[in-house]
Amino acid sequence: MDLGIRGRFARAMGRTASWASRVSGRGSGGMIGGRVAMGLDPNLLAKISEGKKVVIVTGTNGKSTTTAMLREALMHVGSVASNVHGDNMTEGVLAALLEKPDAEYAVLEVDELYVPRIANMVEPAGFVLLNLSRDQLDRVGEMNSVEARIRQAVNEHPDAFVIANCDDPLITSAAWDSPNTIWVGAGTTWTSGSVTFPRTGTPVVHSKAHWHVPADPKYTRPTSQWSLDGKNLVHGDDKYVLALALPGRANRGNAAQAIAAAHTLGVKIEDAIGQVGHVSEVSGRYSRENLDGRLTRILLAKNPAGWQESLSMLATQPIEERFENGQEVVAPTSIILAVNGQVGDGEDLSWLWDVDFSMLHKHDGPIFVCGERGTDMAVRLLYEGVECQVVETPTEAIRKAPIGSVDLLANYTAFRDFKTAIPHDFGKEK
C-alpha cells in the first residue's frame, strides 16, 4: 500500500483532526477526520483500502451490531479495521481505515445510500445485506429506490460474495443476480415494506416462513444455506448452539449473517460462534447502568421495524437483576420511551402509527414517555389504550421510576443525548 506523499500527509492530518475532536469532547472524530483527509486527497480511500479484504455491511436495521459481530469473529484470524462508532458514510469509513491502515481485513458499516459509491472505492471482497424497511422518508426515500442502489453495487462487483437475508424479498431482489450469493434465513418480522417485488412491480405473497411473487414464479424465497432453529444455527446437516449476550430474535439473525460471512473468509464456524457470543453491547446499545438504584438497560430503535423488534425485547426479555442498596428486590420493570424529531431521527414521525404497541398492555409497571416528541408518543399510546406518564427527559423519567429495573428505548438523538447526559445527571464522571 503506497499512499504517496500527498496521501501520507492527508492521513496524518485526518488522524490529528480525529484526535482533536475526541479530546475536546466534540465527538468520536470519525466524520471530521475523514472529511479533512479526503479534502486533502480525494483518492485516499481507494489507496488505503488496496490489498485489504473489505466487507460492506448494510441494511435498514442491524448494521452496527452485525458489523461488531463480524469484526469480533475476524479478529480471531487477523487484524481488522472497522468504523466502531457507526460513522457509516464516506468520511467515517475513511477515518476507520486511517486508524488501522495495515489491517488485513476491513469490516465497514455503510449507509444504504452510500453503498455504490463506497464499493467502487474499496473494491469489496463481500457484502452482507441485512434487511430493508421504511426508514427516514425525508432523507432515504422509498424502499425500491434503496434496493436499486444496493443492487447496482452488487452487480458492479460480480466477484464479491454476498451474504443475503433470503427472508427479506427486497434484499433477495438486490442479491438475485450475483453468482456468489450465500442465502441466510435470518428472519424478518416486518413485511409491510415488501408488499411489491422491485423487479416486477407486482405483489409479494407472504406465508409463514415463505414468500413468492405470483406474477413471476421464479421469484420465490431461495433455499437457505444457513438458517435459525430456535436458538440454534443450522448449516447444511450441522446444528450449532448460538449463545449470544445480546437479546432478541433480530440479533440471532444478525449473528447468523456475521458467522456466515466470517466462515466465507476462512474462520471456523465454532470459532466464529464463540467470538460473536462475546459481543454484549454495541456503541452503548444494550448497555446496563445502575442509575440512582434503577438498573437501566438502554436500547436504540430508529424506525418502525426497529421499534417493533425492540418492543418484543421489552415484553419478552425484561431485566431480571433488580437491586436496592445492593440487595435483590421484587419490583415491576419500568419502561421509558424517548422520542426526538431532529434531522438525525427523521423529522417525519408519522411512522409511530405503523408500530404495534399493543404488547405493552401486558406490562404491569409504569410507562413513561419523554423527549422533544414525547407528546406524539403519548397520543399514539392513548389511541392504543396504553396508560403512560409524560415527562420531559429520560433522566426525569428514571428518577420517577420505582427502585428496580428500567428499560429505556430511545430513537437516535434521544439515545445519543441521554448517553451524553449520564455522567452529569447521575454523577458518573470517569
Structural commentary:
The protein has 430 residues and is α/β, with parallel strands linked by helices. The chain folds into 2 domains: 43-276, 3-Layer(aba) Sandwich (UDP-N-acetylmuramoyl-L-alanine:D-glutamate ligase); 288-426, Mur ligase, C-terminal domain (Protein-Tyrosine Phosphatase, Chain A). 37% of the residues lie in helices and 19% in strands. It has a 9-stranded mixed beta sheet, with helices on both faces. Strands 14-15-21-18-19-20 form a 6-stranded mixed beta sheet, with helices on both faces. The longest helix is centred in the N-terminal third of the chain and has 20 residues, at 4-23. Residues 316-324 have low confidence and may be disordered.
